[in-house]
User: Fold this.
Amino acid sequence: MNSTAVKVKAKRPSKGVAKHNRRVKQEARKNSVPGTEVKKKVRPAQTTKA
Assistant:
């Protein structure tokens, strides 16, 4: 029997920067409305490995 080669679709790169930009824009819109305060999540500081 002849088996045809199945082509696998290449994965897209990470959407990290676009996701970040979208969240920043959302927060800016929320902050433009008076009376609403958004508490920002604080990420732990990265330690450099020597």
Remarks:
- The helical segments are 16-32.
- DSSP finds one helix and no strands in the chain.
- The radius of gyration is 21 Å.
- The longest helix spans residues 16-32.
